[in-house]
Design goal:
single chain; alpha/beta; 434 Repressor (Amino-terminal Domain); Rossmann fold; 3 domains; six-stranded parallel beta sheet; six-stranded mixed beta sheet; 12 strands; about 15% strand; elongated
Length: about 350
Amino acid sequence: MCETPGVASKEGSARRKGVSPSINLRELGKHLALSPTTVSLVLNGSPGAASIPKETQDRVFEAAKRLNYRPNFLARSLRSQRTYLVGVMVPELGEGYASLVLNGIEECLLAAGYVNLVTSHRHKPELIERGPHLLYERCVEGVIAVDTPIRDELPIPVVSISGHDRVPGVTNIVLNHHRAAELGLRHLMELGHRRIAFFQGQSFSSDSEVRWQAIRETAARLGLPVQPKLIARLEGDSPSPQAGYCAAKQILSAREPFTALWAFNDISAIGAVRAFIEAGKSVPRDVSVLGFDDVAGAAFHIPALTTVRQPLARMGFVAGEILLGRMGGNGADGQSDQSSEQSVEPDLIVRESTAGAV
């Protein structure tokens, strides 16, 4: 068979790769002696397929699989003016916060027939600024921002997880940080801890200042002093335990007595445990360590981390539900006139890393 130099035919290319060439809807219908409309109703599970005999439907599915039918999604999108794409912005694809939120987002969207397009900005201001617009230009129908500030209004629905900026058209999903502060501080105080060290989150984290303010206000209400020398801010943009390791070293170098540490997240808590062990301190016998988030590895760390759990997967799922609802139409373009906020509740998960003060 003669082919244009440098351009292989679809059939020839498929054969060289060891797969059968795909056929289109019209060709599949011709093979089955059925109209393309009938075949389309069956393959898409449309309500109209209920009137088609099961034997015919079985023939359609069997032939589609055997002949490697692949739907022309681009053509369908052009006809329906729908892409079934949702853009998701995350700081980075690590093992902690973002991955759990993404699990929830994907579970919700896939069940509804949507695919998410994920991009990470790694805290670069230009990517944070441009990212939502890049996703919009790629025809996503909505955007979910995870721990990523959204400051500009977009012509499509936006849901922001851990978002605290009030932007028209953006729905914020936030943790009840005052409840989280109450759970964490009361747990440590009931164990007899009064000299507690704290990690503040990196300045770029959406929750850093909100959580710290909640901790300070709750500590004051409970009569718990917060010692300036026992506060360290996480530095750097790496999602590894290194930031917690360095922050714990900083607190140790202050030589201010303390019996417990509340870390900004579980990953930094894991780094802190390593620093304390290297300094000859046992966890929790000498220092209790409390984490935040309840990431997948928290229960399997040694010692297993006591932590304040954010329902991260649930937050992702709720974000997907809200976005799908808004894309379904609050008004002609699915936008709401006012920004809104939905709060979720934390839980205290007690494991092995906290114990009574000595």
